[in-house]
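OsmC family protein, Microvenator marinus. Tokens?
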Amino acid sequence: MKAKISWQDGVSFKIETGSGHTIITDGPEESGGQNLGPRPMELVLVGVGACSSYDVVSILKKGREDVQGCVCEIQAERVAEPPRVFEHLNMHFVVSGRNLTSSKVERAVALSAEKYCSASIMLSRGGVKITHSFEVIEIE
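Tokens:
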């Protein structure tokens, strides 16, 4: 895996991923930015949420659950002093589908947290407290 990060102006950077995608990161005006893109720590946050969401959906589909939707609502708290690392993350999964088994959703969330999501496991091993919750929505 590789990426190239090029300074653009102020606090704006162009990110080119090894898979060929481009993202612009930037900061707020008060820090010299123009708010042209997400903050780097926001990208870390959404990376964790996307990684875990992928796991949850994949595990449920392999378990032959009729998943129709999965939304991960993720919130982070950061320490007050630099480096302002994440102190706590909460991931709340809203999984929708037909005849979903709540225990299977709970198991998928746990397996992602404990075994499969490299992003969240890496952060938790670094001292970030990560909590998970979920709800199941039945679709007719």
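The beta strands are 3-9, 12-17, 22-25, 66-78, 86-98, 129-138.
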